[in-house]
Every structure is written in C-alpha cells, then in structure tokens.
Amino acid sequence: MSFRLFDAPLREPSQFVGFAGNTIDRQSENRADDSVDKALADPTTRLLLMNGGRLHLKLGTSGSLDPWFDAAGSEPFKPSFAGTVLLGFSEQGPVLATPVGIEAEHLPETVKAIDYRSVYMQGLIDDAAAGAMAQGAALLAWHASHRFCSKCGTQSQMRAGGYKRHCPNCGTEHFPRTDPVAIMLTATREKCLLGRGRHFAPGMYSALAGFIEPGETIEAAVRRETLEEAGIRLGRVVYHASQPWPFPYSLMIGCFGEPLNEDIQADLNELEDCRWFGRDEVRLMLAREHADNLVTPPKGAIAHHLIRAWVDSEY
Ligand SMILES: [Zn+2]
After folding, report:
1. What is the pTM of this model?
2. How many angstroms is it from 156 CA to the middle of ligand 1?
3. Which residues lie at CB < 5 A from ion ligand 1?
4. What's the 197 CA to ligand 1 centre distance in angstroms?
5. Could you tell me the mean pLDDT of each successive run of 10 residues in the chain, 315 residues long?
6. At what angle do helices 279-286 and 302-311 cross, to 10 degrees?
C-alpha cells in the first residue's frame, strides 16, 4: 500500500474552528516553578481574569470589550496569584490566566463577567484572545478539580507555571488532562446523519459525538459511537479537523464516516431524534433558511465545519 503523506487537504481545516486562533508562544520547555512570579513582576504582562466559568471584560466607551488586565489592575477583583497559570508569551509579553474571587454583584459598572460559551458564540473578543481563553479556562478548570493527589490524597502543589501538580507527600507528579471526544459526520454523497440531543437549542441538529475510551483508537470510537447512538455501522473513517473545547478540557476530533446500512435505530436515551438529511436540506439549515427552522450548529463549532465541508465536497 502506498500513499502520499501530504496529499489533500492542502489547508488544515482545524485553523478555521473556534478557539483555534491562539497565537501564544507556550515555550513549554521553559516553564520554571517561579515563572508565574517572574511574569507578575513584569510590567508588560497581561492577565485574563476568570471566575466560575466566566471571563472578565472591560467595557470601553465605544462599547468595545477588552479581556486584558495588568497585574495592578487585577487587584480589585480579588485575584489568586497562587492559583495563576502561565499561558505563555505574546508579542507584548507574558500572558497569565488568573482566578479571581470577586462576586458578580460587586463588579464595577465598567467590567462584565461573561460565561465562556457566550464570549465565544457571540464573538465578543478576537480569535487570539478566544484561543487564550480556551487555554486558560481548561487549565484553571483542571486545577480546580485536581487539588488533591489521586494516589495518596494529600493536597498537591502547582508547579511549572501551572502545567504540573506535585504531591509533597508521595512525590507523584500530576499533569493537566485533555479529554478526547470523537465527533463524526456519517455521510454518503446524497445524505448525512444528524441527531438532536435533549439539551440542544430548538431546531438544532448536529453531528454525533462521544468520548473516546481508554484503549480505543479514534476510528474505533467513531464506529462504536455511531453504532450505539444510531445503529449505523461504518466502513471507512477519515480524520478531518480538531478543536480545543474548554468545557471543561476536551479536544474534539472531527471525522467523516461511511455508512454501511441505512436503517437508523436511535438510542433515545442519548438522542431526541436522529435521521438522514439530504444535501439541499442541509444547505438550507446552514443558511438559516429551513422551512421548519431547523439549523446546524454555529460557525465556530467543529460540527459546523464538518457539515459545511461535506455540503461543499465532491464526496
Ligand atoms: Zn501523593
């Protein structure tokens, strides 16, 4: 079997998904234990202030929203510098994500705390800042839920600018997790398989998805999830694009799957509905022109890109 390593696609589709615009130079080889303290002493350092799944945004006079604070400017928001993580370095200087403790009702009029999903869905900050937000949100969420050593139960300590936790009792080192999720569009030339989760916005249909399990390849997870959720067996599975997904710290891995049977047996515990959609119908959903107001996920979502790529493909 022979193939050309860098055959099509010529462009990486992942660069077009939401949260993919992160331009921070992580310098992962230079994460000393004092790197956050050093950054806090640097006047060029910029901070993202986060609290309970919300990002703090400064309201400009023209209605603009600015997510960047300096260390002194963060003081009124009850920052936890001990819980701060170093995201890396931008052209302007170091970039930190800092958990803050101020309650929403005590925020000044000029600062809003907005949940990550709304910040991203409504495009409130530029792509680079949204990428930095995803990185910071995922790291801070991991620290918040991994305060104790999973081996001996002792409270662990943040190290390496937030990319490690060290247990002072048993010496075990713990590293931030990224949980892989397979998201797949099963499609023939004429039609694709979309489902509706019970928590979806009204009228929305999307690609099926599920966590990849230990000991499983991406392709095996795609086949298993599609069979479990829709009763559809898949032949070929190909990778398309990935997306960082900070809810709380996943990586969405987008694939196309080739169906071997047509008859859907939807798992109604997981899905409210699941059916085949023709290309013309999906085009109307993408354009928000469907007669029954059915829609596909918004532009930043990797599901949107899978569906768009299929509609525009020669298959
Ligand atoms: Zn321990």
Report:
1. 0.93
2. 7
3. 149, 151-152, 154, 167, 169-170, 172
4. 39
5. 58 86 92 95 97 95 92 96 97 97 93 95 93 98 97 97 97 97 97 96 97 98 98 96 96 97 93 96 97 94 95 86
6. 130
